[in-house]
Amino acid sequence: MAATSSHHDAAERLRLRAIALRTLARRLSNLEVLHLQRHAGTLVWMGPSQQRLATDLQTRRRALTGAIEAMQVQARRFDREADALALLPEPSGVR
Predict the structure, then answer these.
(1) What pTM value is reported for the model?
(2) How far is CA 82 from CA 33, 60, 73, 76, 77, in A?
């Protein structure tokens, strides 16, 4: 027979997931790749290739920063769910 998980255990798992997401988001937000666009200016490149490179880097940066923000939003959601679970009474038979 499987052991019944408590609300406290579930809340703790959600908090750990939130911590992991925040850690990953923080690490991603510190990557140098987010600043590559400053090296794609007209001092480095000229012509249509420069514009394509700048546009591509901007698109990729936007996607990465969007993913970082989504991780932070999900981490906050996990924290709220954990807080709500912690307020629930434990089911009978769970220590």
Answers:
(1) 0.78
(2) 34, 33, 14, 10, 9
